[in-house]
Amino acid sequence: MTTISDVAVHAGVSVMTVSRYFNDPTKLAAATFERVKLAVDELGYVPNATARSLIRGRSDTIALVVADIRHPFFIAIARGVEDVAQAAKYVLFLGNSHETLARERQYLETVISRRVDGVILAPTHGKRHNLEVLRQRGVPTVLIDRRLPDYDLDVVRGDTFTGGRILTEHLLAEGYRDIAFVGGTPGVSSLVDRLGGYERAMAAAGLAPRSMLGRYDQASGEKLVGAMVAAARRGEASLPDALIAANNMVALGALLALRRHGIRVPEDMAVAGFDDFDIASQLDPFLTVVRQPAYEIGREAMQLLLRRFEDADRPTEERVLPVELVVRRSTRRAP
Amino acid sequence: MTTISDVAVHAGVSVMTVSRYFNDPTKLAAATFERVKLAVDELGYVPNATARSLIRGRSDTIALVVADIRHPFFIAIARGVEDVAQAAKYVLFLGNSHETLARERQYLETVISRRVDGVILAPTHGKRHNLEVLRQRGVPTVLIDRRLPDYDLDVVRGDTFTGGRILTEHLLAEGYRDIAFVGGTPGVSSLVDRLGGYERAMAAAGLAPRSMLGRYDQASGEKLVGAMVAAARRGEASLPDALIAANNMVALGALLALRRHGIRVPEDMAVAGFDDFDIASQLDPFLTVVRQPAYEIGREAMQLLLRRFEDADRPTEERVLPVELVVRRSTRRAP
DNA sequence: ATGAAAGCGCTAACAT
DNA sequence: ATGTTAGCGCTTTCAT
User: Fold this and answer.
1) What CATH number has the domain bearing residue A30?
2) Contact B247, B275 (CB under 8 A)
3) What are the C-alpha distances in Å from B158 to residues A250, B73, B94, B162?
4) Contact call for B44 and A279, based on CB within 8 A
């Protein structure tokens, strides 16, 4: 591989001159500049960023760690992060924690060893979470989608407490009374919040909440709703008249399970969820949702990280972006 | 930041002993191993992969460059690549060329300078494409989705020529005769192939093909179909009775444009596309498509790259994965 | 089983 | 405006 000294020899200058060609060309005489340029082009030289970052102590690289790469919500966030990162000349490592502490930790150690300048993380829930690793190494970190107690970090997330509340209030206003909450990973702050908003609204209406938690994915939605229907058919419990799914993947699973059991939406049961479907909702606007500005969450997270690079001591910020209720057919009784 | 010599001092050994602790622990005496382990834990030491890769000449890092990160097809590919990469202990850089040669080139140079061990690329079309940069530096490269003439590289792609043919044959069998092809970036091999399959089938049926090309995205589908309808309304051209969209984003745009103009699908016009929708098709299986195994394309691409790391001289492979026709309501005349 | 010396490719700091 | 020296944190090679 061509190195800086190959170029220096080829151009008949010192390595520092070649280094300056890339880092501060204005310091070179016009003639020298041209000679170096020629040598660089002829040899097809690309500087070794590895060597540069070893000495500079920074890599112009950041890592994005999401919980589930299949989830449209995180994909939109990734787009937001990537757009801002690319504009600021940062390259992006993308990793998937699969909502698992062990995987998350392994991934974080990998990117720390690669000396990323910062991390944007949707933290997995658990007793001993992995933030300690990042804090100990002093890696600038921005949390997305999820708060974490005990860590004074920048956070960007949607206001899903309000989301849970207004979604429930909408269902109440439509006349639903037995409203159940389904899916989501217990303990994760985004779930705690939206569940909390739901419970608050139910309490305000003098109604009892009921929830079935699990995970944040489609399979969980299918399983929980399938079990719920089976229990009702055995006469063990009543079927609710409305369902709030913890996110859109859970909503999808729930809708499929209900369809399989011949329960019509919204005629027999209303269904609502969190996060919108980008394509399905354009093709057939059916599901009522609380929409979070996912792309914006990604953008703001990266912007916050850049700002922290500039000033490590600035006070941390928690940006809670507003959500939006989008009412569609799935929660409307009358046609 | 803690370095290897900090650990060495703390443990009372040489730096080489600490290095061996990480790279070949069997060479250490049990007692020495424990002392190093203690020092590593106490100091929270994580080896600097940057320094290691400088000397080793490899980084255990690969780059995935896709044309459009909004496209579900590329997202599924990314998942496949990531799953195999993670299992093989590689970290993934993710980049977006926006179907632009300049962006692609800039991104490739960035990751080359970071000394990625390999690149998986959906190459942007253009006269002077950027593969030369990779070849000159000897970076192992696997192409996805798109062939490139003049470059003897591993390729993994779907058999979209056959896809174009069977999709057209399906429409012909349903009785459609005036079938138009819409969208897609001219010159890109995936488009050339699916358009070729369409034209072959039309010719075999003794029918004239008609196509309107543009880009591979939703906006292009909307614009082209909007213009087509406007021209028909001005009496400048007839409306086709069936439409083949170059991919699913184009199909989405086409469907929205048709809806806006009050043209019903499939009653007034049939619509079919390439690539399936993951969520929309589960919620409401409407659009007839040729489905490509996107996740598998990603997996195989990464596997091919790993194999090339092991043996740089093995002959290149072109893996053409079979596609599948999924017939749904959008191309069925009778209810 | 452990260590000392050299150097990967580059840049910061100091010459000239 | 250009060059020299030292060293970033690690591993390779060659001792012991």
Assistant:
1) 1.10.260.40
2) yes
3) 31, 11, 22, 9
4) no
What's the structural domain count of chain A? 3
Confidence grade of residue B40 (pLDDT, cut at 50, 70, 90): very high
Of A48, A248, A277, the CB nearest to B115: A48
Could you list the beta-strand ranges (E) of A78-219: 91-96, 118-121, 141-144, 154-158, 179-182, 210-212
- List the structure tokens of A293: 């500005």
Strands (E), chain B: 61-66, 91-96, 118-121, 141-144, 154-158, 179-182, 210-212, 242-245, 270-274, 288-291, 318-321, 324-326
Specify the DSSP element, H or E, that contains A318. Answer: strand A318-321
Render pLDDT for B85-126 as a digit per residue (tens, 0 to 9).
999 999 999 999 999 999 999 999 999 999 999 999 999 988
Smallest CA–CA distance, residue A93 to chain B, in Å, is 5
Give the SS3 label for residue A277. coil
Task: State whether A277 and B279 contact (CB < 8 Å).
Answer: yes
How confident is the model over B25-34, as a mean pLDDT?
Answer: 92
In B, which residues are within 8 Å of A271 by CB distance? none
> How close is the nearest chain B Cα to the Cα of A49, in Å?
5
Q: Are residue A234 and residue A317 in the same domain, yes or no?
A: no
Specify the pLDDT at position A126: 83
User: Tokens 């093709």 identify what position?
Assistant: A283
Nearest nt by C1' to A14 Cα: D3
Indicate the length of chain A as a whole number. Answer: 335
In a domain, A210, yes or no: yes
Q: What is the CATH number of the domain that holds B238?
A: 3.40.50.2300
Structure tokens at A159: 């206001």
Distance CA B174, CA B334 (A): 9
**pLDDT tens profile B206-239:** 999 999 999 999 999 999 999 999 999 999 999 9
- Among all chains, which residue has been given the structure tokens 């792309």? A295
- Best of A82, A114, A328 to disrupt the B interface by mutation (most B CBs within 10 Å)? A114
| DSSP structural state of residue B333 | S
Does B53 reside within a domain?
no
Residue B149 and residue B169 share a domain: no
CA–CA distance, B200 with B250 (Å, rounded to integer): 22
Whether the Cβ atoms of residue A157 and residue A321 lie closer than 8 Å to each other: yes
